[in-house]
UniProtKB/TrEMBL annotation:
SUPFAM superfamilies: P-loop containing nucleoside triphosphate hydrolases (SSF52540)
Pfam family, one: ABC_tran
Similarity section: Belongs to the ABC transporter superfamily.
SMART domains: AAA
InterPro entries in alphabetical order: AAA+_ATPase, ABC_carbohydrate_import_ATPase, ABC_transporter-like_ATP-bd, ABC_transporter-like_CS, P-loop_NTPase
Key words of the record: ATP-binding, Nucleotide-binding, Repeat, Sugar transport, Transport
Organism encoding this protein: Devosia psychrophila
Record domain ABC transporter: where: 3-239, 255-498
Record bears the keyword Repeat: yes
Coiled coil residues, start to end: none
Protein name: ABC transporter
Entry GO MF terms: ATP binding; ATP hydrolysis activity
Length: 504
């Protein structure tokens, strides 16, 4: 199936989000679309999928012009989309999620789950995908949820699969498994539109790449006729940033002390884990998702009850303190899930920027919130962190994923607390923003702040960390000093506890 977008323009009020963009998706091809946050990538894909109506432009399938009233029309013509933030019902099973709104029904009106189960088994075997159809979504890892989203699309016979940042929170091993699924999909003659910020992945798996900047299409080339550096220059509109450097420095007192901490995980206890983070250092945690990182961080910030051990911040125990009290004690937190934990999506940008400060004198006068102060502060964050948004009074839900992430990072780092806990701080942001956020974390570290970094990007952990802890099966399998960090050794510990390493 040949799918063509021609001369598409999208406007939101006075803002032109997409300006005269044409993209073409051919059978048996992976076509990557890259660009900065707010460049218009997701907006174009939302037009293609019927979520947004363009002011100008056409969609054609095999040369016939289409008019979408809604995504159901696009789905009926063979398009499927996996969004950056999963659209799954946590309380339902895998099978129930996959067949939702496409259930096979008997003459008496009952859902024929055995028929659906058989069809799902056939699809899984065809594309080499494995997932238990009876498991609840709430009990699945991030990778398994991604697979369920893809199975939903395949169940509906999609010929064009649109993927928005599919590996944003996957480890390299998990991404490799996903890529094999995509290769099988391509080999069957189907098409893939891949939105991503990861240029290494573009070079590895894409057949063609289109670069967007400021709502315009800059270039479209076969992958063999371009390079990673050329794509990067097209994205940022200039030369690449200088390489990141991290100077060695003496560390100070212990800021975060964790001693035998345990927390309840999915079906088992996470921990016990013991470690500390000192002033002037970044301690990174590496590990394949599902090995306890999320539970440990949630226990530290107060989102999950502990079942043993203890943690202290600057000598003050965290036991019994809620999230607000821990933040008041000197903790900032960049969460992995910006949609559900990091932001109030229907609130204004200014209101989200002030979270954690709304009770301070700067933002409150007795019973009254100082709206002007909140607006002024949000404007400072927008400028400092290059956040693309209509303004402080815009709804946060109107922002792209990467710009939401920059808002959270700016809000948390600007608090200047002794401890910063950062989970996947560059999730879904473009190469320019990644460099900026990394430099901000290094700047905070150099200024004497203690930073606990959790990232599914091993390169990020290696680039930023002074010490690296490796998690495997809910426990610390090893520790590396930055100077001794070895990618292969870390990778081995991430997948096997056959050897435990402790490097001072």
């Amino acid at each position: 199936m040949q799918v063509d977008l021609s001369g598409v323009t999208v406007r939101f009020g006075t803002l032109t989000a997409v300006d005269n963009v044409s993209l073409h998706f051919s059978p048996g091809e992976i076509h990557a679309v890259v660009g900065e946050n707010g460049a218009g990538k997701s907006t174009v894909m939302n037009v293609l999928f019927g979520l947004i109506k363009p002011a100008v432009g056409t969609i054609a399938i095999d040369g016939a012009e289409m008019q979408w009233r809604n995504p159901q029309d696009a789905i009926a013509r063979g398009l499927g989309m996996v969004h950056q933030h999963f659209m799954l019902q946590d309380s339902m099973s895998v099978l129930e999620n996959i067949v939702l709104c496409s259930e096979p029904v008997s003459n008496l009106g009952f859902v024929k789950f055995n028929t659906a189960r058989a069809r799902l088994r056939e699809i899984a075997e065809t594309y080499g995908i494995g997932v238990n159809p009876e498991k609840r979504i709430a009990d699945l890892s991030v990778t398994e949820r991604q697979i369920v989203e893809i199975l939903k699309v395949l169940y509906r016979d999609a010929a064009l699969l649109i993927l928005d940042e599919p590996t944003a929170v996957l480890t390299p091993q998990e991404a490799a498994s996903l890529f094999q699924i995509l290769r099988n999909f391509r080999a069957s003659g189907k098409s893939i539109a891949l939105i991503t910020h990861k240029l290494d992945e573009v070079m590895e798996i894409a057949d063609r790449v289109s670069v967007m900047r400021a709502g315009k299409l800059i270039s479209t080339k076969p992958i063999g006729e371009t390079s990673k550096a050329e794509i990067a220059r097209g994205i940022i509109g200039g030369e690449l940033p200088a390489s990141l450097t991290r100077a060695t420095q003496a560390v100070g007192e212990v800021v975060l002390a964790v001693d035998g901490l345990q927390a309840r995980g999915v079906g088992k206890t996470v921990g016990p884990v013991s470690f500390d983070v000192r002033r002037g250092e970044i301690v990174g945690i590496a590990g394949i998702s599902g090995n306890g990182q999320t539970q440990i961080i949630e226990a530290l910030v107060g989102l999950r009850a502990t079942t043993g051990g203890q943690a202290s911040l600057l000598g003050h125990t965290l036991r019994g303190l809620d999230v607000g009290a821990r933040r008041a004690l000197g903790m900032s937190y960049i969460p992995a899930d910006r949609q559900r934990v990091g932001l109030a999506l229907e609130a204004k940008v200014s209101e989200n920027a002030a979270i954690g400060r709304e009770g301070t004198k700067a933002f409150r006068n007795w019973l009254f919130i100082k709206r002007a102060a909140m607006t002024s502060f949000a404007r400072e964050l927008i400028e400092s962190y290059h956040i693309k948004v209509a303004g402080p009074n815009a709804r946060t839900s109107s922002m792209s994923g990467g710009n939401k992430q920059k808002l959270i990072v700016g809000r948390e780092l600007s608090r200047g607390t002794p401890l910063i806990i950062a989970e996947n701080p560059t999730w879904g942001v473009d190469i320019g923003a990644i460099d900026f956020i990394h430099r901000e974390l290094i700047r905070m570290r150099d200024a004497g702040h203690a930073i606990l970094l959790v990232s599914t990007e091993l390169d990020e952990v290696l680039a930023l960390s002074d010490r690296i802890l490796v998690l495997y099966e809910n426990q610390i399998a090893g520790e590396f000093a930055a100077a001794d960090a070895d990618r292969l050794a870390i990778g081995e510990l991430m997948t096997s506890r056959s050897k435990v390493v402790q490097v001072a």
